[in-house]
Design brief:
Blueprint (H helix, E strand, L loop, with lengths): L1 H23 L3 H24 L9 H27 L6 H12 L7 H9 L4 H16 L2 H9 L6 H9 L2 H12 L6 H27 L7 H22 L7 H11 L6 H8 L4 H25 L1
Helix pairs in contact: 1-5, 1-10, 2-9, 2-10, 3-4, 3-6, 3-11, 4-7, 4-11, 4-14, 5-12, 6-12, 11-12, 11-14, 13-14
């Protein structure tokens, strides 16, 4: 529980500072900070933490579980929408249905998942969080997520732009380079500053989350969002977390994967909603509410697993 308290103080404090700065600074600041982290901060952090992580033979399970979590979240959200239509005789608009499904299946396993897993489990097993996000959650967001958005929304002209964003994503390139760079010996002083830069990137990522939350102003879709958050942050991690020990995974690895599964909806849901003309208000509300709900659900997963 002491670790959890430290987590809330350090991580929550940085998000709060970012929230305050987001209200005071020009809107261009979080945009520029996001660009810096996207192109420089996150890739270098990945390279640094990969040098200190253990790559076990079972690590392929992480992205496999990520895909399973995405599919299960989408299926449960689809069932909930169909159930609502049957029992209440109300059917949301197609754009709203898509946003509800995306919020239930796609998690913020990068900007939020990375610092939380680092703080609670440490650097030794951090590669599991990386594999979960970069080989599972990220491609799942921009493949299945885009397919669902294209089915319910509009904006087919954005397909190439999204495909291009996947191919040039610096985090994936940093991941590949980090795997190759693991065996390269560098001077101790360079290793020291590389690690310092990596942790600075984690801190700036949390500041950025706070800044973006400060710019989210819509809460009118909160009643609808509750269904997606219940699936994404409660049902899916409970179901999948209960079967993870069957794979012979150790406790720290199970904890990392469960934490990644239980992350709130990803910022990618808003990116896709804007690209395909889905329900933007619902996507925005899911991001803000999910981040707040995480404060209550995080101790549950740490206690259960």
């Amino acid at each position: 529980m002491i670790n959890l308290l430290e987590l809330y103080v350090k991580l929550g404090g940085l998000v709060l500072v970012g929230f305050i700065l987001g209200r005071k600074l020009p809107v261009t600041v979080p945009t520029r900070l996001g660009q810096f982290l996207f192109w420089v901060g996150v890739p270098i952090s990945i390279v640094s933490f990969l040098r200190q992580s253990s790559l076990s033979g079972q690590i392929w399970i992480a992205p496999a579980i990520a895909y399973l979590a995405i599919l299960l979240g989408a299926f449960l959200a689809w069932l909930a929408i169909k159930g609502q239509a049957y029992f209440r005789n109300t059917v949301p608009q197609p754009q709203t249905q898509a946003s509800l499904i995306l919020a239930a299946m796609l998690g913020n396993t990068g900007y939020l998942g990375f610092p939380i897993t680092l703080a609670m489990v440490g650097k030794e097993y951090f590669s599991w969080a990386l594999f979960y996000d970069l080989l599972g959650s990220f491609p799942g967001t921009y493949t299945l997520g885009v397919l669902i958005a294209a089915r319910f929304g509009s904006g087919a002209q954005n397909h190439w732009q999204i495909a291009k964003s996947i191919l040039i994503n610096p985090a994936l390139w940093g991941f590949g380079f980090g795997l190759l760079f693991r065996q390269v010996t560098i001077p101790a002083i360079a290793e020291f500053w590389l690690e310092k830069f990596a942790w600075s990137g984690v801190g700036l990522s949390l500041l950025l989350i706070g800044m973006r939350l400060a710019l989210l102003k819509s809460w009118r879709s909160l009643p609808q969002v509750g269904m997606s958050l219940g699936i994404k942050m409660l049902l899916v991690p409970l179901i999948l977390g209960s079967i993870l020990p069957l794979f012979g995974l150790t406790e720290p690895i199970v904890k990392i994967i469960v934490l990644q599964i239980a992350m709130p909806p990803a910022f990618g849901t808003l990116v896709i909603a804007e690209a395909f003309n889905l329900d933007r208000d619902l996507a925005v509300t899911a991001l803000a509410a999910g981040t707040i709900v995480l404060l209550a659900t995080l101790p549950v997963w740490l206690w259960l697993f």
